[in-house]
Amino acid sequence: MNISTGARNRAFWAVDRLKGSPVRRSLRDIEAILAAPRSASVQAFLDRRLRRLLAHAAATVPQLAGCDPDRLSSFPVVHKAMMRDGGADFRSRPYLHAHLSETATSGSTGAPFRVLRDDVKVRRNVVDALALARAAGYDVGMPMFYLRREHPSSRLREWAENLVDIDVGDMREGAAPREVARIRGTRGPVALIGYASGLEALCREIESQGSPLEHVACVISLAESPSEYLYRSSPRFFGQELTARYSDVELGLLAQQRPGERPYRINVASHHVEILALDGDGPAAPGEIGRIVVTDLFNRAMPFVRYDTGDLGRFAVLPDGTPDTTVLEEITGRINDQIYDTADRLVSVLGIVRDWGAYRGIEEWQLVQTGSGTYLFRQKATVDAERDRALAEEFRSYLGRDARIEMRYVDGIPLLRSGKRRAFANEWDRGTPAAGPGRAGAAPAQFATA
């Protein structure tokens, strides 16, 4: 049995009204804030929301006792291992025996980390997802093709939400033609959301067929950094500009691009973001790459205050030279995925190779730093010595003319356990060099990827 998008939409909002309209109220809150995030009234409102959360955390969480709710900087910067090892001391005392939602994350490596959420935080995550999807062009009830590794949704929920799960692992095994046919056969408009590598596989299949999709309402990329090919090809083959999203399991949806734009608009309605220096817990200089540190404004059961995500990024800079704390101009990924040039300076991986489309024949790739000034480029590709020489020369323009680069052909790039594709990796065992400007030693080992 199938019901129309309109019927699902009406049913969703009817159920919400019967419950007192909690989703609609939260949705209005989020959308109003994100419409004018830098206005004085919104900033004052968010300051009050932040202080209420800090006051609650300082009064009820043992590890945060004694911190000043009026000074965010008085709270310690924490990370996953610290909160995992601290156990109940990072939980709010009034919620110790409450019924809470639980999820476990270890990312792709490491010991599991149990994240606990109260009902308000659970609902906020749901509404955050709805608000940001609506900003990209989605509406409730629309068929959504979700490309991911795990499929946690029940059959009933999939039917109710018009959700179609696609396993990104299957896409690597030749499922792209079948999935493109399934999308074409669905009455539109439809939404496409999922891992960037899965969306790229769809793009390449549509390109080979020579007939673009004509009923896509939005394309949302998550979990992986989109390639230049995907940004460039999305309007051509999906009929919509790509929208990339930044999120994690612990905190939820942190930021999202506007269609056709590269900066990420921070979800300031639900999170307070800081960019801290690589070599300390002070703020990074305006426009400087630093550690992305987040305070969750809604999880009162297990407050995440000044939580180091393990990612690096930088704020946009306003005309007066101050940071725009509502916009991430750049997100460069996990700290242990960072690449350093031959002079030991951090290189933005997003700037490496301006146009992958110029290097034909490469299906999958991974750039790995293996030592000081030494790099390995793994590629599943047709053999082309001239392309390899040109690509190595372009790498040296970013990494240093003295960079030693090995080009290696492989059968495929292994996926992480999460199903994500790791485009950049650093396998250099640097030990513990003294911290200093631009040195990897400035980023403590505990901030490694989860």
Automatic annotation (TrEMBL):
<dbReference type="GO" id="GO:0016874">
    <property type="term" value="F:ligase activity"/>
</dbReference>
<dbReference type="InterPro" id="IPR053158">
    <property type="entry name" value="CapK_Type1_Caps_Biosynth"/>
</dbReference>
<feature type="compositionally biased region" description="Low complexity">
    <location>
        <begin position="431"/>
        <end position="450"/>
    </location>
</feature>
<dbReference type="InterPro" id="IPR042099">
    <property type="entry name" value="ANL_N_sf"/>
</dbReference>
<protein>
    <submittedName>
        <fullName>Phenylacetate--CoA ligase family protein</fullName>
    </submittedName>
</protein>
<feature type="region of interest" description="Disordered">
    <location>
        <begin position="428"/>
        <end position="450"/>
    </location>
</feature>
<keyword id="KW-0436">Ligase</keyword>
